Amino acid sequence: MEVKEIKAYGTAEATAPLDQLNINRRKPTPHDVEIEILFCGVCHSDLHTARSEWGPSMYPCVPGHEIVGRIVSVGAHVNKFQVGQMVGVGCLVDSCQECQYCKEGLEQYCEPGATQTYNSPDKHFPGNPTFGGYSESIVVNENFVLSIPENLDPAAAAPLLCAGITTYSPLHHWKVGPGQTVGIVGIGGLGHMGLKIAKAMGAHVVAFTTSESKFAEAKRLGADEVVLSKDAEQMAAYRGKLHFILDCVSAEHDINAYLNLLRVDGSLALVGAPEKPLPVAAFSLIPARRSFAGSMIGGIAETQEMLNFCAEHNIPADIEIINIQNINEAYERLLKGDVKYRFVIDMASLKN
Q1: Which of the listed CATH numbers 3.90.180.10, 3.10.310.40, 1.10.760.10, 3.40.50.10330 matches domain 3-162+298-351?
Q2: Per-position DSSP letters for 147-197, written without gaps between them
Q3: Sign of the alpha-carbon dihedral angle for 30, 36, 41, 43
Q4: How far apart are CA 107 and CA 155, in angstroms?
Q5: Rounded CA gap, 341 and 114, in Å?
Q6: CATH 3.90.180.10: which residues of the chain?
Q7: What pLDDT tens digit does each residue of the chain (352 aa) get?
Q8: Alpha helix (H) ranges present in 61-125?
């Protein structure tokens, strides 16, 4: 297979900082799209994976799965896209496309396992990992490429490809809409998108935060009400009142305190990824027929639906643009929660 060497930013081991390196990309096969990467969002999972915090990673590791760029070439059989088009690539670059879930448009739950944008075995280069968006370009099968609506700012659209779909998918799946009171727990990279999307879906939105300093921000982002979650009296006022809760917190926290805020038949979906198990009390669920669930990104069709929804309702991510040379500093700031609310790399900086 013909390959092209390009610049990227990544790491050769868990304890090393990210630095410039060269990687190989395949030249487009008949069904591939080649994309010049203009912007790439920085997700907390990039940091976890680069540092092998979710189990052993494959090295070298080039993170990045919130990719927006412009098509520079297409394979001979590509009919969905054309050169010059602004497109995106999210967390997936391939799947079996044959199992029951792929056929239902749920590629993220592919039975043999979907191919992640980075840190997955690369079907085209056996023995090597896939490389993500901290790079000059990427080559992807057209079925895993997304169209970026013209009225979305390309940089602010990048985080929608992970943070946007991670919050949109459960809100959509549990049919959040008018007449419902919906809780969003945590106001960070995921939570800030959850607030915007739930509000645009027509729900009455209640934000939960451990910090009074975030009250005004939560209101700006779409919350109708804001609750200080460490205040037992404020929490008690919402007991049995919420139809749905989207929990975006990755730190350890008392999940039962939130389950008890659900009404009969209410559901809580966890999209944050706490490192340790969260104890769930049986009587937080049984007396009100409540459900405790999880959700992972979305399929390709649903991700396109989310992009179109965000374009229709003018919902970008709140971003801070950085140069790739500042990525290690950005990781340290990410650990401290020092970003509102998503870093996005201007990939033009990689050419410097």
Answers
A1: 3.90.180.10
A2: E--TTS-HHHHGGGGTHHHHHHHHHHHTT--TT-EEEEE--STTHHHHHHH
A3: positive
A4: 25
A5: 28
A6: 3-162+298-351
A7: 789 999 999 999 999 999 999 999 999 999 999 999 999 999 999 999 999 998 899 999 999 999 999 999 999 999 999 999 999 999 999 999 999 999 999 999 999 999 999 999 999 999 899 999 999 999 999 999 999 999 999 999 999 999 999 999 999 999 999 999 999 999 999 999 999 999 999 999 999 999 999 999 999 999 999 999 999 999 999 999 999 999 999 999 999 999 999 999 999 999 999 888 999 999 999 999 999 999 999 999 999 999 999 999 999 999 999 999 999 999 999 999 899 999 999 999 999 8
A8: 100-103
Please give the structure tokens belonging to residue 290.
């409540």
* Residues of the chain by 3-state class (helix, strand, coil), percent to 5: 30, 30, 40
DSSP 262-316: EEEEEEEEE-S--SS-----GGGTGGGT-EEEE-----HHHHHHHHHHHHHTT-P
Residues of the chain with CATH 3.40.50.720: 165-294
Sign of CA pseudo-dihedral 164, 166, 172, 175: negative
Q: Which residue in this structure is represented by tokens 């179109």? A: 308
> Rounded CA gap, 229 and 210, in Å?
5
Q: pTM of the prediction? A: 0.96
Element (H, E) at 330: helix 327-335
CA-to-CA distance for 194 and 160, rounded, in angstroms? 11
Locate tokens 């140069």: which residue? 323
Residue 167 in contact with residue 193, Cβ under 8 Å? Answer: yes
Distance CA 222, CA 78 (A): 40
- Would you say domain 165-294 falls under CATH 3.30.420.10? no
Contact 263, 287 (CB under 8 A): no
